[in-house]
Amino acid sequence: MTSSSSPADTASGVAYSLTASVLFALMYFHATLLAPLGGAGIYGWRILLTSPFLGAFILLSRRGAEITELWQRLRERPVLWLAMLLSSALLGVQLWLFMWAPINGHGLDVSLGYFLLPLTLVLTGRVCFGERITRWQLVACALAALGVVNELLYAPRVSWPAFVVALGYPCYFALRRVLRTNHLGGMWFDMVLSLPVGLWFIAAPLPEGAGALRHPVLGILVLGVLSAVALAFMITANQRLKLGLFGLLSYVEPALLVVVSLLLGERIAQSQWLTYGAIWAAIGLLACEGLLSLRALRPQALPR
Question: Which stretches of 33-130 are DSSP H helices?
Fold first, then answer.
């Protein structure tokens, strides 16, 4: 099962992926303003608000047929509900971990997981879907691998959050391709099936200090909008790009999270500069390849 992309799809997919990374970084910073809620509470509100926003996005973009088509398939083959529950659980764990880890001292572990993720996605695309990668992408992957190896040398005991990210997301995206739910309608179903867990977290007693939140309603609404649009753009990029390129582009998000962390007062250790330098160099190669692809696309748009 291979995926093919036209130059136009690739160019738009890259743009969607980069925009999604920026929005996720903004959400990461915004979540620090809601920190008294705790990771579980923020996750619960994110699930509750993202579902309707994502549904509205699907309707406004005239893609409601994706939901109705999937609903019809579920009615005809009820056994697919089990696979959909698994897909929803895989996504729910990642969304929860993204909010929980920074507040509970596992931010670096999750960041390492995101650094490892593109490599595991490239491997998944190659092994499971027979995808090929370009020479530019091979060089970028090698540079990123150098950075990850440097990071592992200073983190010999990789904790479970890193493995959850690096192995969980490839399983999620691969499952969606096998189920043919690799579209916004499938994402919306995953979010809706996670609602009971989100409501359970919201119903839990608020931690001490939660009452000190400034403008909590507005802040939570902003969190929902950022989450819905970022997820919509991410899944659109995943639909238009080969899994390997999609995986390599996901290096942009942890790089932006580093920028957010620096703005929040954290500092990069001297031993980590090789890690981040190699990863940013890999991102630069991907950006150059994207520009070359856009230049190659322009002549095709000229009238003949």
Answer: 38-60, 64-76, 80-103, 107-129
